[in-house]
Write the structure tokens for this entry.
Amino acid sequence: MLFDPLFWTRAALIFICLVWLKRSLWVSRFNVTHPPLEPAREAPSQGEKVSVIIPARNEEKNIANCLVHLFKQNYPSYEIIVVDDRSTDKTSHLLENFQKLSTVPLRIVRIEKLPPGWTGKNHGMFAASKVAEGEWLLYTDADTTHRPESISTAMREVKKNNIDFLTLAPETESHSFWEKTVQPLAVGSLALWFHPAQAKGHHNEIVLANGQFILIRKDAYEKIGGNESIKNEVVEDVELAKKAKKAGYRVEFWNGTKLYSTRMYSSLREIRMGWTRIFTYLFNKNVPSIAHKIFLFLFFSLFPFVALAWELVLRTQNPAAVPAELFYLTLITCGWIILVRFIGNKMVKSNPWYAFLHPVGSVIMVWILLACVGRILFNRPSVWRGDLHQ
């Protein structure tokens, strides 16, 4: 039995089924353990001023949609500051037109040159903060779509719960084939590996943040040194949250899927580049940690499907080559994985039928994680928005 491959295959499949059972319970309870913030039913009659800051570089595809929805906010006191960071497309022209038509105070901060030692986004965020007039700063990205209650709801929560730094997870939009195949798996893996509950508590060293929505008190931002204190960090959202938490401010990461959405990437190339950058720095360039995640995908996501394909080949040649109970166990395991992914895709409002492409998405995820390892071992810089980041 010790050297019986069929025994170990059965044992592995049973173990994989149990792990996916645990994941199914986690998925089914996620909206209970991490309920989305309900949009504020009524807008406040008054409130502290909020400066909405949007770093934008070559965002001609996104900036119009972002601004149109931000103009519709029902919060009584806010301004919008867009950082036009060395754009070479039509972003500058679009911003000028919006500035003429806007009924909301809209200012444009133009960046012509990136100072040495800064990442582009950090510099843009810091430059905008210097001209912001609000008591609160709301950093958001150009590829986001905000509901009219977005600011009102976030301000309601920070006031009610004495929060200094509130960051929200978005609903993730997927439109293209590769987005629907990979994005739900990547986002789900991120939530599984960096569980929001792990960041609870003031003394917990784990800190989560999402740069697509960061609402921070301006005086707290200034006291921790703002983005200047992390000017060369690539994952600036997490580093800024760490700074705030270390300084004793209350930092919270909540579910904002009912308040805003984002389309992170539109092509396979963008998906690979974006997630390679994210995972490389979220795992602190730790090769063993990334290698562990590669193993998880190979064993828990790909092994059952490879085993099923191999068993099908053997059974076409000789029906007795694979015991019937092993074949059906493998089939059930693969079906169970797809069912869990089907439910998960529905939860994140992605096409659930793409769950059947789970093996393809898993191969892409392994490819991305291997790219992270290669980037670390060979000290290759990340390229994002035209900038190089080590």
